[in-house]
């Protein structure tokens, strides 16, 4: 029987990064993955393939809507080769997962393919082509999450689908009904809207992306409406029925009246749930709640001292980069170090176009907590760079403490804000004030100038370009 200092169950961003860091710190490391490719949901059926389709569909939309205004004329009709688009997405996924294989080999990490489950707190059974057992002094559970559904919805994976199936359709839908106005529903809804599908988003809450700042919700919905996406807020879905190629979704609107939607596909994107099925946690003595989430302390340690858990299986936002940070933290704790994660500074991003990005507290959270704050906002349309590229939608909003001027939250909508948000994370990590950002030189012309201008607006309400 092989013995390891640490075994990681699950090879998503949290798991494979934890394995690399453990190996870097001199531990004999094993990683266990039930699927044939490493990378978990993110690399195989999540972050990476969805961004590939978002980029491909964005190119197509630019070609049919925006090239002409740039003086680019394309003779004949611009056509979609959807099969090739899906093949390119698969190629990107394959390249990325092979990169993880390379990293495992480079760091001398043993990879086991099969379903891992606990026999006890130090032994893991792996059922693959053959069944084998390994011994691990320590284990990190990193098994991620699966798409959630509603109890009355039968996801048939053909017409009533989750994000996994939406990434590999064989045709462009005529009318896709999206249940859920969160990140996944909006990103995939925008992909298919660009490609010509009618898209209707049915959301239970009174706004889309409800966990982000209210100003972002309003701005993104305004822009996506212009793009042709239809929104039905404060609608409680009550039934989803399929007959042949027709899917009917019934819901109750805010007036209490029943409404129905008919389409050829229904994307169920109502969140994700922790995936701990089949781990036999009870045999190791690890406790999980009724939703499958594993309880951990501030050191990511479960109630069993040698077993840790990270990523989507524990509390907090289900984000790949959050899982990565926790993977590094768990590895360093095992090595006797004292790492720390500030969960308030984990950024959130929606990869629609325009992009949406946030870090820190929202205006609603500050008001609820009774914190006195200043707000500065600057529109992207006032930037020379935005006008040059034609990306004039959106804004940067900075919230700072009314007394100390420390930055408490930064919320952005616009071109490339998924990258811009890192400036805000850096500033907040070092507890910068809005004035600190306002006095830093930002290259011209860039989208980042909106950050400086919003900081000027938050400091003394003195932006330079509006």
Describe the structure.
This protein is an alpha/beta fold and 466 residues long. The protein has 3 domains: 3-147 and 273-341, FAD/NAD(P)-binding domain (3-Layer(bba) Sandwich), CATH 3.50.50.60; 160-270, FAD/NAD(P)-binding domain; 345-460, Enolase-like, domain 1. Helix content is 33%, strand content 25%. The strands form 5 sheets. Strands 1, 2, 3, 4, 5, 6 and 17 form a 7-stranded mixed beta sheet that branches. Helix 1 packs parallel to helix 9 (320-334), helix 3 packs antiparallel against helix 4 and helix 3 runs parallel beside helix 6. The N and C termini lie far apart (69 Å).
Which helices and strands, and how do they pair?
Layout (H helix, E strand, L loop, with lengths): L2 E7 L3 H12 L4 E5 L6 H6 L1 H19 L16 H25 L3 E4 L1 E6 L2 E5 L3 E11 L3 E3 L12 E2 L1 H4 L8 E5 L3 H12 L3 E5 L11 H13 L3 E3 L3 E8 L2 E7 L5 E6 L1 E4 L3 E3 L6 H4 L22 E3 L10 H15 L13 E3 L4 E6 L2 H7 L3 E7 L4 H6 L5 E7 L5 E8 L2 H13 L4 H5 L10 H12 L6
Parallel strand pairs: 1-2, 1-6, 2-3, 6-17, 8-15, 9-10, 9-15, 10-11
Antiparallel strand pairs: 4-5, 5-6, 7-16, 12-13, 13-14, 18-19, 19-22, 20-21, 21-22
Helix pairs in contact: 1-9, 3-4, 3-6
């Amino acid at each position: 029987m092989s013995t390891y200092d640490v075994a990681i169950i699950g090879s998503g961003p949290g798991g494979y990064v934890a394995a690399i860091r453990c190996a870097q710190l001199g531990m004999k490391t094993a990683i266990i993955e039930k699927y044939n490719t490493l990378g978990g949901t993110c690399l195989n059926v999540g972050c990476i393939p969805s961004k590939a389709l978002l980029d491909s569909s964005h190119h197509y939309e630019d070609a049919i809507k925006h090239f002409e205004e740039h003086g680019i004329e394309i003779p004949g009709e611009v056509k979609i080769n959807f099969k090739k688009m899906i093949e390119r997405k698969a190629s990107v996924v394959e390249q990325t997962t092979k990169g993880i294989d390379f990293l495992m080999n480079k760091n001398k990490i043993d990879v086991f393919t099969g379903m891992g489950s606990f026999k006890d707190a130090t032994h893991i059974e792996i059922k693959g082509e053959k069944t084998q057992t390994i011994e691990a002094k320590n284990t990190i559970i990193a098994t991620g999450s699966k798409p959630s559904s509603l109890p009355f919805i039968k996801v048939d994976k053909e017409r009533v689908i989750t994000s996994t199936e939406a990434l590999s359709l064989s045709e462009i839908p005529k009318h896709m009904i999206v249940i859920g106005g969160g990140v996944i529903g909006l990103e995939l809804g925008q992909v298919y809207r660009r490609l010509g599908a009618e898209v209707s988003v049915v959301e239970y809450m009174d706004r889309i992306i409800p966990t982000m700042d209210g100003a972002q919700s309003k701005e993104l919905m305004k822009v996506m409406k212009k793009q042709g996406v239809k929104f039905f807020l404060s609608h409680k879905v009550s039934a989803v029925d399929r007959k042949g190629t027709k899917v009917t979704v019934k819901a109750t609107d805010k007036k209490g009246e029943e409404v129905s939607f008919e389409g050829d596909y229904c994307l169920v994107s109502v969140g994700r749930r922790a995936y701990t099925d089949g781990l036999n946690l009870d045999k190791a003595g690890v406790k999980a709640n009724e939703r499958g989430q594993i309880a951990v302390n501030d050191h990511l340690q479960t109630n069993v001292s040698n077993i840790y858990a990270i990523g989507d299986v524990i509390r907090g936002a289900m984000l790949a980069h959050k899982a990565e940070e926790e993977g590094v933290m768990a590895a360093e704790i095992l090595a006797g170090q004292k790492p720390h994660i500030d969960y308030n500074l984990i950024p959130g991003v929606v990869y629609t176009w325009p992009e949406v990005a946030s870090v820190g507290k929202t205006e609603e959270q500050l008001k609820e907590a009774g914190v006195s704050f200043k707000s500065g906002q600057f529109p992207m349309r006032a930037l020379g760079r935005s006008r040059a590229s034609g990306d004039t939608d959106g804004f940067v909003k900075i919230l700072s403490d009314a007394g100390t001027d420390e930055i408490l939250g930064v919320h952005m909508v616009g071109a490339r804000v998924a990258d811009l948000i890192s400036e805000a994370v850096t500033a907040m990590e070092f507890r910068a004030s809005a004035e600190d950002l306002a006095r830093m030189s930002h290259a011209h012309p860039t989208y980042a100038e909106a950050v400086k201008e919003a900081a000027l607006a938050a400091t003394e309400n003195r932006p330079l370009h509006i």
